[in-house]
Amino acid sequence: MTTYWAAHVWLPDGLAQDVRIGTADGRITTVTTGVPAAGTDHRLPGVVLPGFANTHSHAFHRALRGRTHDGGGTFWTWRERMYALAATLTPDTYLDLARATYAEMVLAGVTAVGEFHYLHHTPDGTPYDDPNVMAEALRTAARDAGLRITLLDTAYLTGGIDAPLEGAQRRFGDHDADAWAHRVAAIRPDDTLTVGAAIHSVRAVPLDAIPVVAAHATGRPLHVHLSEQRLENEQSLATFGVTPTRLLEDAGALGPDTTAIHAVHVSPEDVAILGSTRTGVCLCPSTEQDLGDGIAPGALLHAAGARLSVGSDQHVRTDLLAEARSVELHERLASEERGAFTPAQLLELLTSGGHAGLGDPTGGRLEPGAPADLVAVRTDTPRTAGADPAQLVLVAGSADVDTVVVGGVVRVEGGRHALGDVGAMLGSAVRAAWEGAR
């Protein structure tokens, strides 16, 4: 058994002092408060938080960071640059980029990621000899970087409502929902990989295919992009006569195992539907800021009963503490009031809310039986010095993360990942990913 001790630890009922956490076989076995450190304890600095969940990730988008800001535009013009990148990747370059991207996440305190994976086939849409070779690259990347992955294998069947796949989209698509399900059935879970599913959006999955995907995902995490852009709503209303949220509910795709991503442009009726079905909602503030998507009604969704979480999505920044903080800051901008979410609520959507959406209701809680995932955030940096430890989520960021333990294994210590120089890894992987891009 390994024991850890810290002066401040965030337990399920709040901040506790002088805490020893015992671990064995990747799980927490004991939590004892009000005790001095022993000589055999691994002492952790600052405030120890449960491991963070990055509920929504597109690993290959990390290569877009700092490369899309020279022409203005909209989400739709940004998407063309994303397609250009998607057309270049091979299983080898995808592995290297994902490994470095995941290592950056672990540096930021992430211990589990939901990978919304649709980069399935060769650039012209022909399956690889191993139809899941790109998924296997993600499995290897996550294992090497040292975090758990929920592989949200994504059904992406049309290029828009009633439109064929074109260009780079061809490598995203399977022939139909049954072909997608057959391919996904060959992906085997293991101790670090959970197999989930995703409906890319109501734009990319035909109405009659949505129930097929939802049925295949029964009992597993199911994620879906929802109302990120106004145009999606307009097209859904024009074609189906209902909003994307109502369409998904009518198709049986909403519920406690489902997480809707973004939910920026949702109506009051949509909010009520998401809350009453106990559907999760993953907010991605840095992407919503970067792409000009808008501000999601996080407080209304939370009040309606939706389980909230956060994701770094396109990785314009990899700082999950900042993503959680931005949920509150967006509410302040929209309402001109402070305190829509307490620090404890922000930590919940950063930790247990996200892990639940990734299929692990035991994750994100420092208690016996939970994964031994510990994140030590320093309280003596220029950003955090003097802050109330109970309010750390409102000031700290990824640069303040000192130690990260994932499943009982120390992956980051002293702010350095066990793999070495993650910046150098990212630089090399991003350059290789862009070779040959149009």
Description:
The longest helix is centred in the N-terminal third of the chain and has 17 residues, at 91-107. The chain has 14 helices and 17 strands. Strand 16 (409-413) and strand 17 (416-417) form a beta hairpin. 54% of the residues are buried. The strands form two sheets. Strands 1, 2, 3, 4, 5, 14, 15, 16 and 17 form a nine-stranded mixed sheet that branches. It has an eight-stranded parallel sheet with strand order 6-7-8-9-10-11-12-13. By secondary structure, the chain is α/β, with parallel strands linked by helices.
Uncertain spans: none
Tally the helices: 14
- Give helix % range: 25-40%
Global structural class: alpha/beta
How would you characterize the largest beta sheet? 9 strands, mixed
Q: What is the chains' assembly state?
A: single chain
Strand content: 15-25%
Mean pLDDT: 97
**Dominant shape:** globular
Strand segment count: 17
Ends apart, CA distance between termini: 53 Å
Output the radius of gyration: 21 Å
Characteristics:
single chain; 438 residues; alpha/beta; 8-stranded parallel β-sheet
Secondary structure blueprint with pairings:
Blueprint: E1 2-11, E2 14-24, E3 27-33, E4 42-43, E5 47-50, E6 52-57, H1 75-86, H2 91-107, E7 110-117, H3 133-145, E8 148-155, H4 177-184, E9 193-199, H5 210-216, E10 222-226, H6 230-240, H7 244-250, E11 258-262, H8 268-276, E12 280-283, H9 285-290, H10 298-304, E13 308-310, H11 320-335, H12 343-350, H13 352-357, E14 374-377, E15 401-406, E16 409-413, E17 416-417, H14 422-434
Helix pairs in contact: 2-3, 2-14, 4-5, 8-10, 11-12
